[in-house]
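User: tokens in, sequence out, please.
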């Protein structure tokens, strides 16, 4: 790493990423696009994704915090890109991120201005009896305003590598985060992980209070069947310290 490169802010493992993806009118996303970035398209379409996964073995600046190293995250995100000196950087922008710990949500809001919310969460992962590395189903739950919300996937077949140019590759191969700051600038941070294997899905079901969690403008889109759904295997990850970009 170059001497002036950002340092690692967080290390963790992200596991069993349930991803349901929806094609969306880019006009709906336009107000959320951070300065210096533009919407990223795949085959002429823009997407939002509800992504639920397990955060495990979490360390912030190398420090392990008791009761804050294993937890669920559920987020709604979309995809952007930013032209830097080294070429196009493909990133994600979050509409809302849900975790079960107030401290985690607070730190993310203060340091990154990320739209975190602390809610009760849980999960159920069903593994194959023949091979525990093969996942049969994944379900994530979060309680909001006294109501149970959930995302459930049932997989089909075995885990497979990403195919170049495919929609699963587009959804998973964004290695930057972009978030609008309080002064209108944009913070960019790098996320490092290997390419993930993924499972196709037999069924996918999302039940959630879209209007109050994400905004009325997302209700029509997220009430339809998803354009695609899959489960990504996950891996160890590194999240680097954020740097403001030029707009």
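Assistant: Sequence out:
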């Amino acid at each position: 790493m170059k001497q002036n490169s950002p340092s690692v802010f967080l290390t963790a493992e992200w596991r069993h990423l349930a991803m349901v993806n929806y094609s969306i009118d880019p006009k709906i996303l336009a107000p959320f696009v951070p300065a210096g970035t533009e919407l990223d398209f795949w085959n002429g379409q823009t997407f939002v994704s509800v992504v639920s996964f397990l955060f495990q073995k979490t360390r912030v600046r190398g420090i392990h915090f008791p009761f804050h190293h294993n937890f669920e995250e559920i987020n709604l995100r979309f995809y952007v890109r930013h032209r830097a000196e080294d070429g196009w950087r493909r990133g994600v922008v979050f509409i809302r991120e849900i975790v079960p710990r107030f401290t985690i949500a607070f730190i993310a809001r203060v340091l990154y201005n990320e739209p975190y919310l602390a809610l009760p969460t849980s999960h159920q992962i069903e593994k194959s009896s023949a091979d525990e590395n093969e996942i049969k189903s994944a379900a994530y739950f979060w309680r909001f305003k006294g109501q149970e919300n959930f995302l459930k996937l049932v997989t089909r077949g075995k885990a497979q590598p990403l195919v170049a140019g495919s929609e699963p590759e587009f959804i998973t191969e964004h290695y930057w985060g972009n978030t609008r700051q309080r002064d209108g600038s944009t913070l960019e941070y790098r996320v490092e992980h290997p390419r993930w294997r993924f499972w196709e899905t037999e069924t996918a079901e999302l039940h959630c209070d879209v209007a109050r969690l994400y905004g009325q403008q997302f209700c029509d889109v997220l009430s339809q069947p998803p354009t695609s759904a899959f489960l990504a295997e996950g891996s160890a990850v590194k999240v680097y310290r954020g740097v403001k970009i030029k707009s």
